[in-house]
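Table S7 (text form). Paired inputs.
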Amino acid sequence: MADLRVGLIGLGMMGRHHARVIREVDGLELAGVADAQGDPHGVAGGLPVCGSVSELIAQGIDSAVVAVPTAFHEAVALELAEAGIHALIEKPIASSRAEGARIVDAFEARGLVGAVGHIERFNPALQSLRARLEAGDLGQVYQITTRRQGPFPSRIADVGVVKDLATHDIDLTAWLAQSAYHSVHARTTTRSGRQHEDMVTISAELTNGVITSHLVNWLSPMKERITVVTGERGAFIADTATADLTFYENGTVNTQWDSIAAFRGVSEGPVTRFALVKMEPLRAEHEAFRDAVLGRPSGIVTLREGLATLEVAEAVLASAAENSVVLL
């Protein structure tokens, strides 16, 4: 079977990584690139740099990666859908729920494969964690918390920290728990003088009763990417920056105090750090998208899942603006 001809739209920081991985993955051929601003990182190689999406489509592509700023996602995606091109769209799916819904409708109406680049689902630590949760290693899940902090990335200018960074945590939490969000309460602030919020704290509940919290900002001098899942048998800690997964097992408190002799509490137990095969998440994401286009079983983040995540992000912003709990 001939390789899938892939077009890349957007040659910025993420675009250069997509170009590298597309060239590395079996069954894919980087057939064309496009960016109205040129090729600042020199990723095109011997390919001409197209100035428009239509020019790229004319190169004869089967699928495309959309790595332009979020504000342009809708226009680019709709043009690809009209041309019958499958697309992997960087997260978030769009700037607003209305834009995202139009993208979903366009791809579904034409029977095209569409995916959103919520790359954390392809992190080895989180993939292993989800498998262990499904196997019942933790028993009942009580709580999922995340911390995603670091310096401001100057390349992000069109959305705030909620839609850019917190959407990672919203998506991975719903995916790990296999449950949608039921309610959110959030606070945001802007401390850097930029247009959009740069810090957020989120408290939420999922439809299955799991409670969650997310601490996300662009104003920390250190980079932190931590997910903690606590349940009846202990707690898993996944560090997605290093793709490490550790299990802290509950111990048993023994006491001779008669009045509480029947009480079994939680104390420190054995700690296990798992040895994982660590494939680059972006490569795993591209392999999944390739398989989906070819009609094979695949773990892509669907456009509808991406839209659901954006809806939660908008609920977070509404909650912060109104200082109220927002039901989804």
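Next pair, protein 2 of 2.
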Amino acid sequence: MDKKLKVGIIGATGMVGQRFACLLENHPWFDVVVLAASKRSAGLTYEEAVKDRWKMEAPLPDKYKKMVIMDAAEVEEICSQVDFVFCAISLDKAKTRLLEEEYAKHETPVVSNNSANRGVSDVPVLIPEINADHAKVIEAQRKRLGTKRGFIAVKPNCSIQSYVPPINALLKYEPTEILACTYQAISGSGKTFKECPEILDNVIPYIGGEEEKSENEPLKIWGKLEDGKIINAINPVITTQCLRVPVLDGHIAAVFVKFKNKPTKEQILEAWRDFKAPELVRNLPSAPKEFLHYFEEENRPQPKLDRDFEHGMGITMGRLREDKVYDYKFIGLSHNTLRGAAGGGVLSAEYLTAAGYITAK
């Protein structure tokens, strides 16, 4: 790319916003020129706003320290300075949906980490390796919004990344039922151990709204485009339980699957080994060289050892074996703030740029 696109991060002070900032510090295609957050942070430098709550292991990049935070509600002013925005702002769903639509209507594409627009039928929920073709629905969304270049695209819930990609590679065997129990890191709630003392020596068996998202969003990802809408798949039937565990980063899923056409274990491993994303996706700057990786060791994958596989953008699996109730069971792992949040958003933006949906103004 000859000239970098100008980017804004909406919700730059939160954990996912900080992760976006780190990932984009030296990005070959994108240049962050606007950091925005709520009104209470507006007018502060980024360093002032996050100095007591910087949550990344890497130090605050010098590039952002003296950048003055804008009020995310100043949509027209922000849109005049950027080609598109990443949105990770923490508002209630109704306000988030309206804010993202306002940016889109100001002819500024929005790549969102939020759940507010995931259920909208003409908003693509992207895992580029799996359903990049869903971006075609953007044309219908633009007609609804009355825009020429503005639109909203979102990445899915962080917890489903640990089991949807491995099962996606097995769709030809027609999975009919999935049970997934997810054991989710505290960074999924935007917290560190210091901010979440109640998790120490503990497991919390409830994460608000998580099970509904985990059961429904995969069906949209596996859905079909019809008449300017994404029609959710009917099968497989998915049931989940989601627990918060004392792990900083990395969501694990214990997955049980039943198939219409039961494959052999060797066929499953072959499907995982041979899975390839579309060529356009494979060549993106943030794309993992190996999307799916199976560990033969019985005690893998582990969050501490394996969450950073492929810079946190790969999915790892292990312990595949036949089950007495379902056909097979296995363990999946994904990095929830990289593949599951900011990294997935950056990869989606790269795809939307390469495919021509995001351009310079």
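The mean pLDDT is 97.
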